[in-house]
């Protein structure tokens, strides 16, 4: 059987990795597709624009939080396969251009219900016939008798459908379908059937990002025997937004409206039907160009092999040696951390910016899907460590471009496909840019970047910044997330000060260094908690540190989680609490509290509870490392093991909270390596304890960093020593420069709880209040 040339070339390239295990064999994309993980199992390239995956249910937000990725493992039917998805988001959108193969004499135009209790184009399926790999997904659709296979290049999704012998073959395209769907979400859409058989179109939606436009082009490996275009909207309203310019050629058939579907018919055949779907944020012609550039033929196996080789190269940046279950969790975590930021531009460099206009990226790749409130903590620092030149520089340049194109002149908050959603709090583009600059990653104009950071941090209408700048805190009588905003703004300000100081911009540095201490203005030293504070200076009463949700003053958390959020100055917190032992006791009290999870049943994203520690959401992610600032490494080691053992497992329910575009996964990767970036921008990683026997980081400068655990067993889980390149460390952190220099970081374990390393630690991680 002849193989395509591209397939053979990729087989040869794969041989370069033969000397070490294939990382793809350890990845299970089904991890996190159950309960609260919100990941998807389908096919995508690393950081790809297309995420081609099955959807099992779409509903409006109030009913469908758990279907944020379109797919949920416990569902028994598949609605179809759409081309855009978020990985692990707590809110959602997308699910564009749903396609479903249908066999038989007629094609239902309605999906039917989730349980398949009434007719529709849905199909039942079984997990026994389901297969998910990086860059590939397959499943048998029981009701249509079709074997469905999916793969993807960066901008093109490729389907391969094998129908039963002799059956009539149909494909349904439903432009009404969308994740977090609701009546009126589709503002306008269009389907064109062109003379050469190419199908193109677009739709504009008002979902999470309003006025979002996405275009598509579809080609089939077999000629259509017929087709039909439908507008299922009963009373199409007049719409004055996106319309077809001019008149269509006579040989093009087209339908426009808000309830569009199309059915494409194909003669019976035993040969698989291959369908290519390219997308573009700019135009139908750009979608065609994307398809021609990335998938010129109908070589499904070649595209699959090429994409899987891309994944192989990305996942080989870190080699893990651990227990089989931990290896599966870790490689899958690394895979999930490489979903976003996703490419959001066409092959010609054109993209749609936050002004909803078309721009062209010159010398960089425009990326989006920026869940920055989550990912600045660990996901982006992980990319900065293993892939800075491409991923970090592209991200920084994309954020700078977005600030320049924004109608508000500020950096992205939570952006996808170039459009702003205003979701979450803070101006967390700033720590990402500052962290990159401080680590020597500077493939952008630093002066322009700093100006953009300052503009974002001084834009008075955003998030009560005017009051923050005037009072030194966000007042709770004007903002329901006041306490959280105060401390998150203060950290962002510190990162601006760090970069400005390094650049010699003293005035900017002094201004933002002062603001970096504003976290103190909302911390009640009498109660020992961060508390909402009123405009008149009083702390709001009554105060309950366990209160979360509406009226609490906190964002997706409470005072138990947020009182520790001053990564730039944990020594300052220790002083306010009354010393190391007070901090240790309060942290232990947080972990050990008896809490009924039912009290947070109606609060979004409170999950993965260990007392008042909430691993299912980001504000808690650095807390186990804070014992290190108080000279109690044993406490950090014990709590990290408690978290890893209870919050991660290699199964569909293996993530206790939303993966949040890779943040939950990146936490596991860093923690398993033995260190964590508590304060991005400090150039330090706080030491913990590893959960691998051995790991090798293939650093972008060509160096290798080997991490070894010596004598690690369940009985010997306490650190006796930490040795970097033959030198025993007397501090509880390592620097970015030390890691990038490569060599060997060795963790030596013993069965002594008070092992000697704890007694030799003389230096804690960076804090503004500590002598430098």
Automatic annotation (TrEMBL):
It comes from Edaphobacter modestus. One of its GO terms (molecular function) is carbohydrate binding. One of its GO terms (cellular component) is cytosol. The keyword Transferase does not apply. InterPro entries: 6-hairpin_glycosidase_sf (IPR008928), GH-type_carb-bd (IPR014718), GH92_a_mannosidase_put (IPR005887), GH92_N (IPR041371), Glyco_hydro_92 (IPR012939), PNGase (IPR050883). Keywords: Signal. Gene3D superfamilies: 2.70.98.10, alpha-1,2-mannosidase, alpha-1,2-mannosidases domains, GH92 mannosidase domain. Residues 108-127 are annotated as: Disordered. It holds the Pfam family Glyco_hydro_92N. The keyword Signal applies. Residues 1-18 form the signal peptide. Residues 286-749 form the Glycosyl hydrolase family domain. Residues 26-280 form the Glycosyl hydrolase family 92 N-terminal domain. GO terms for biological process: carbohydrate metabolic process; glycoprotein catabolic process. It comes from the Bacteria. This is Putative alpha-1,2-mannosidase.
């Amino acid at each position: 059987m002849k193989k395509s040339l591209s397939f053979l070339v990729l087989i040869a390239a794969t041989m370069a990795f033969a000397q070490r295990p294939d990382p793809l064999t350890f990845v299970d994309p089904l991890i996190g597709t159950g309960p609260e993980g919100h990941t998807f199992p389908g096919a995508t390239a690393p950081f790809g624009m297309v995420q081609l995956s099955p959807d099992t249910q779409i509903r409006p937000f109030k009913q469908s939080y758990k279907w944020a990725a379109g797919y949920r493992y416990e569902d028994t039917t598949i609605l179809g396969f759409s081309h855009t998805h978020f990985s692990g988001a707590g809110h959602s959108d997308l699910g564009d251009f749903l396609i479903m193969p249908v066999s038989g004499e007629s094609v239902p135009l309605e999906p039917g219900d989730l349980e398949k209790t009434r007719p529709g184009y849905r199909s039942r399926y079984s997990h026994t016939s389901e297969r998910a790999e990086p860059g590939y997904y397959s499943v048998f659709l029981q009701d249509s008798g079709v074997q469905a296979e999916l793969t993807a290049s960066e901008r093109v999704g490729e389907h391969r459908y094998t129908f039963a012998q002799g059956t009539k073959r149909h494909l349904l395209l439903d432009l009404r379908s969308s994740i977090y769907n609701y009546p009126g979400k589709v503002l306008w859409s269009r389907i064109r059937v062109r003379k050469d058989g190419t199908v193109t179109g677009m739709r504009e939606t008002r979902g999470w990002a309003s006025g979002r436009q996405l275009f598509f082009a579809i080609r089939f490996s077999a000629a259509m025997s017929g087709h039909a275009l439908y507008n299922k909207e009963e009373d199409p309203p007049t719409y004055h937004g996106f319309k077809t310019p001019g008149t269509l050629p006579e040989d093009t058939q087209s339908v426009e409206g808000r309830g569009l579907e199309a059915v494409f018919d194909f003669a019976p055949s035993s040969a698989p039907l291959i369908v290519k779907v390219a997308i573009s944020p700019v135009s139908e012609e750009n979608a065609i160009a994307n398809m021609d550039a990335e998938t010129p033929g109908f070589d499904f196996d070649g595209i699959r092999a090429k994409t899987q080789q891309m994944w192989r190269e990305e996942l080989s940046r870190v080699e893990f040696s651990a227990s089989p279950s931990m290896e599966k969790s870790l490689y899958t975590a690394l895979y999930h951390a490489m979903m976003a930021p996703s490419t959001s531009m066409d092959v010609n460099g054109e993209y749609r910016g936050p002004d909803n206009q078309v721009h062209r990226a010159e010398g960089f790749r425009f990326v989006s899907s920026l869940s920055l409130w989550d990912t600045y903590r660990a996901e982006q620092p992980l990319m900065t460590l293993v892939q800075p030149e491409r991923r970090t520089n592209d991200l920084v340049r994309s954020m700078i471009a977005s600030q320049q194109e924004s109608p508000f002149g500020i950096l992205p908050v939570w952006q996808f496909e170039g459009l702003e959603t205003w979701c979450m709090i803070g101006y967390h583009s700033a720590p990402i840019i500052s962290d990159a600059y401080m680590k020597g990653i500077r493939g952008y104009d630093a002066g322009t970047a700093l100006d953009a950071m300052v503009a974002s941090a001084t834009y008075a209408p955003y998030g009560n910044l005017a009051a923050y700048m005037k009072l030194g805190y966000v007042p709770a009588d004007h903002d329901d997330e006041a306490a959280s905003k105060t401390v998150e703004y203060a950290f962002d300000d510190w990162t601006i000060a760090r970069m400005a100081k390094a650049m010699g911009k003293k005035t900017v540095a002094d201004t933002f260094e002062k603001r970096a201490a504003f976290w103190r203005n909302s911390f009640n030293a009498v109660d020992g908690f961060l508390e909402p504070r009123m405009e008149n200076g009083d702390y709001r009463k009554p105060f309950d540190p366990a209160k979360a949700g509406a009226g609490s003053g906190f964002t997706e958390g409470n005072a138990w989680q947020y009182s520790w959020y001053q990564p730039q100055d944990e020594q300052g917190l220790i002083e306010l609490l009354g010393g190391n032992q007070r901090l240790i006791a309060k942290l232990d009290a947080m972990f050990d509290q008896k809490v009924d999870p039912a009290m947070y049943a109606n609060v979004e994203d409170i999950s993965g509870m260990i007392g008042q520690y909430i691993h299912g959401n980001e504000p808690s992610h650095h807390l186990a490392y804070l014992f290190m600032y108080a000279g109690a490494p044993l406490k950090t080691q014990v709590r990290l093991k408690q978290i890893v053992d209870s919050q991660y497992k290699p199964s569909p329910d293996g993530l206790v909270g939303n993966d949040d575009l890779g943040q939950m996964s990146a936490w596991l990767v860093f923690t398993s390596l033995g260190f964590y970036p508590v304060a991005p921008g400090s150039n330090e990683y706080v030491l913990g304890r590893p959960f691998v026997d051995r790991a090798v980081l293939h650093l972008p400068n060509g160096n290798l960093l080997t991490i070894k655990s010596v004598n690690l067993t369940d009985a010997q889980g306490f650190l006796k020593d930490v040795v970097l390149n033959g030198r025993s460390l007397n501090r509880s952190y390592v620097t970015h420069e030390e890691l990038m220099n490569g060599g060997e970081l060795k963790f030596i374990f013993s069965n002594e709880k008070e092992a000697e390393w704890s007694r030799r630690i003389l230096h804690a991680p960076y804090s503004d209040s500590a002598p430098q």
